[in-house]
C-alpha cells in the first residue's frame, strides 16, 4: 500500500503567525557567536539573518509584523519577498509550525 502524501501546509501570508516547532530550540552559542537551531539528533548553525527572523517567530507576531521589525534595520532589502520565502522553506523542513 503506498504511503499517503503529507497534508499540504497553508501558504504563508502576512497574517501567518509562525512559531518554532515543539521539538525545536533556538539558542545562542557564545563560542561560535551564532544562533543554533537544536532538534532531536540535529543542530543547524544559522546565519545572523536567519537567526534574527527565527527569533521573531514567536507565535504572536504575524509575518507582516516580522517584516516591519526587520525593515527598521534593513530598509532597502526585499523583505516582502525574502521573509515569506524563508519562512515557507523552514516550515517545509519542520522547524516552524
Q: From N to C, what is the helix and strand string?
A: EEEHHH
CATH class: Mainly Alpha
Helix content: 25-40%
Q: Major sheet, described briefly?
A: 3 strands, antiparallel
User: What would you call the shape?
Assistant: globular
**Which second-level CATH architecture applies?**
Orthogonal Bundle
Please mark out the parts with pLDDT under 50 across 5 or more consecutive residues, or reply none: none
CATH superfamily: Coenzyme PQQ synthesis protein D (PqqD)
Mean of residue pLDDT values: 91
Task: Assign the CATH topology.
Answer: Arc Repressor Mutant, subunit A
**Helix/strand structural class:** alpha+beta
Hey, roughly how much beta strand do the residues contain?
15-25%
Set out the fold topology.
Blueprint: E1 25-29, E2 34-39, E3 42-45, H1 48-56, H2 63-71, H3 79-93
Helix pairs in contact: 2-3
Descriptive report:
- The structure is a single chain.
- Helix 2 packs across helix 3.
- The chain has a single domain, classed as Arc Repressor Mutant, subunit A, CATH 1.10.10.1150.
- It is globular and about 30 Å long.
- The two termini are 29 Å apart.
- A 3-stranded antiparallel β-sheet has the order 1-2-3, with helices on one face.
- Helix content is 34%, strand content 15%.
- A hairpin with a 2-residue loop joins strand 2 and strand 3.
- The chain is an alpha+beta fold.
Amino acid at each position: 500500500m503506498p504511503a499517503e502524501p503529507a497534508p499540504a501546509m497553508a501558504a504563508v501570508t502576512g497574517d501567518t503567525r509562525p512559531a518554532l516547532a515543539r521539538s525545536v530550540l533556538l539558542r545562542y552559542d557564545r563560542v561560535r557567536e551564532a544562533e543554533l537551531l537544536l532538534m532531536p539528533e540535529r543542530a543547524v548553525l544559522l546565519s545572523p539573518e536567519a537567526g534574527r527572523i527565527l527569533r521573531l517567530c514567536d507565535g504572536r507576531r504575524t509575518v507582516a509584523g516580522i517584516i516591519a521589525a526587520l525593515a527598521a534595520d534593513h530598509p532597502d532589502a526585499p523583505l516582502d519577498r525574502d521573509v515569506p520565502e524563508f519562512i515557507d522553506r523552514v516550515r517545509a523542513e519542520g522547524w516552524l509550525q
